Fold this protein.
Amino acid sequence: MAWSIGTDAIGDLARGAAVLGTGGGGDPYIGALLARQAVAEHGPVTAVTLDELADDALVITVAMMGAPTVMVEKLPTLDEIMEPVAALGTYLGRPATHVACAEIGGVNSTIPIAAAAALGLPLLDADGMGRAFPELQMVLPTLYGISASPLAFADEKGNVGVLQTVDNSWTERIARVAAVEMGCSVMICGFAMSGAQARESLVRDSLQRCIGLGSGIAQARTGKVDPVDRVVELLEGRELFAGKVVDVQRATTTGFARGTATVRGDDGDLTLRFQNEHLIASVADAAGDETVLATTPDLIVVLEHDTGEPVTTEGLRYGQRVRVVAAPSDPRWHSPEALAMVGPGYFGYDVPARRFDGRVTEVPA
Amino acid sequence: MHIGIDVGGTNTDAVLMEGVTTLAGVKHSTTPDVTTGIVRAIEDLRAQHHFTGAQVQAVMIGTTHFINALVEAQRLAPTAALRLGLPATKSLPPLIDWPQPLVEALSARTYLAHGGYEFDGRPISPLDPDELRAHARDMAAHGIRSVAISSVFSPVNHDLEDQAAAIVRDEFATADGGAEVAVSLSHEIGRIGLLERENATIINAALRELAGEIVDGLTSAARAQGIEAPIYLSQNDGTLMDEDFVRSYPVATFASGPTNSMRGAAVTSGLTTCAVVDVGGTTTDIGLLVGGFPRETAGEVKVAGVRTNFRMPDVLSIGIGGGSLVDLETAEVGPGSVGYRLTTEALVFGGSTLTATDIAVAAGRADIGDASRVAHLDPAFVQRVLDRIAERVSEAVDRMRTSPDPIPVVAVGGGSILLPDELPLFGAAHRPENYSVANAIGASIAQVGGEIDKVVAIEPSRREESIAAVKQEAVEKAIAAGARPESVDVVDFDEVPIPYLPGNATRIRVKAVGDLEMGR
């Protein structure tokens, strides 16, 4: 059933998106503000489920590409969000019928709401990841052979480009360079797909899930229920660890916020390895032997101990009391092709992918 | 010698200092009009310890006038917000997300114009002088008297803010009657984060006229007492600003209350790096002093409903105070409190509510009220409550500290009788004696500072040089603010690489502080 996203739901959605952002995706404040502004100006957005989608619908994803830090200074405009959609429509010879989120973490969960409101298009209750990842090609549609290009991109000055590339990794490489040249914050539109393809490749009910997470945390707090337990329940995950952040190391690696954080609990230390998002959670025993508890592509979420408020990798600080939750990602992320794209190995860690419950994903030799 | 005065919401404290020695200290209720309160404080100091006006080298004042004016939406100037950045940012204009009553109290008008920079300093679009002149004429026509100018990435390059200010001033000067206009520039006020920096700048602009009145009032009060020495006001970070600076940047006084209290606690205890635990009636506020300065919040702070990125002291409040309710079943304390009704509702004062103060009296830690009224309390229960308080306070202090290294704890405030002499995890709690006037002592600390916050592209081979250059900028800013050059030190340095930006773009924050050159 189609439902409506008004300004009231945006706060919950943004908080939920920070949970599913697994530490990355940037401060959702600006994205939420923009979505609220667009909805206030153009009216509520209609969200439709994948089941309601006609086979011949034309679905496109809308997202921001660049540095979230730039976005808090050079605030994005609605024009900038609409232009690549128009350019893609021109290139394809027909206009899009539905907007979808490429990812459901951080700012890219709220930008599509602004886009759908401003364009007067319905928004799919679905997304390309079920979480957040740092690169453009890291979406399930890539695994279904759906091309990111033609990919349209625009800056606030009115510069618009359309890329046609040989595969989705090339789209990422070329678009990233363009994004930097255009001021490191551009809006992109691509992954044009039919309704049938969207139904097959996207993660369903993402917006509902996000709003449910956001309101679940808020309601647990007012109802004096443990908000972290509520998150664990909603994500069908498990709590890995509770403790205090005792060390945060950030490395200056070009382009990525890479680092490690140590959380000290009653039974030892948990180490978080992150690169924008949390990628690996492991514990060490007294002899220093490390046991990996969970890795990407499953979700590793750090929540403030009492309030359940999600903590970003940039926001990690000594002394915070936190709880670390692991939760399953969409099962399709555990195929060999998917792990090659988003598994620990892609991010430079020589460990097998471990699911939220500790199982190693078997990769056929 | 010098005088420190802290004008709080309830009390005005004043001290006469010789170096770091307190010669006299007085406490009064705060008066609605600034001048009277200051005059009375100075007269009473003189009664305690005679001095002549000529002996006073400086008067340092901490005041809540400006933040109160904002919170009460009173005495704010008609203000315009002018943002340079078109075509960027237009969907989220200035004052977005402000409480409507405050927008009305400012008779605020907003304007967008071309200009602004990219993250690496390239221009977004050139300044359009005609556009700015048209905006300025419209402001003048609508009775605007103060203007806040912000530009995209002005912490990286502020040239366009300066140029726009010159054009706006010129246009006001040539308008009918040649009006004066106060201009506040965002790069001088806030940090990276356009909306938050712009908000702080607009607040500053709205307070400019009041700042003039307050400074005039304070100065005439001091002069009436024969004091010709310069007047300084406390800033959020505990450093001082002179009269002219206050006229231009009143917003920098916003958090001086908690800051002065923390710094005063440090001075009276002789510690510069410590945790300060201020136990009041309803809450315990915990802050951290590092090198004599409060550690500040990293993120956004809402003031009167407006999101800003002021550097505010990072204070953690927990619901434990002298008036906190004590649960007879669980031995748990707070967060409920009898507050100011302590002296009628607590058991020791003849009331019927068991409060934390009763527990302190029962334990023999304090001699307040009638101890016989709590003699029936089970000593084991009393001990359990005190242990629980100590445990929770220790845990909160532990949460605030930035490393596992040991840190001394200074306990102050009327409710600090609740704390044991030894805190779990931290050992001895220091209890300074002069606490009743510690706020004023905090205000009297004569240091000035300079701060830089910008995004710098750091070439890997030139990292040291790049960082040194930013540090030097901060040192020069401190000297310009009145610090004795040889006394200036870099007290705070933070370097954060920015994700998704090429060229090792790094956000650097540096704060330099030195001793005020007195009698300059």
Remarks:
- Chain B has a mean pLDDT of 86.
- Residues 446-515 of chain B form a domain with the Dodecin subunit-like fold (CATH 3.30.1660).
- Chain B touches chain A through 44 residues (CB under 8 Å).
- The longest helix of chain B spans residues 194-224.
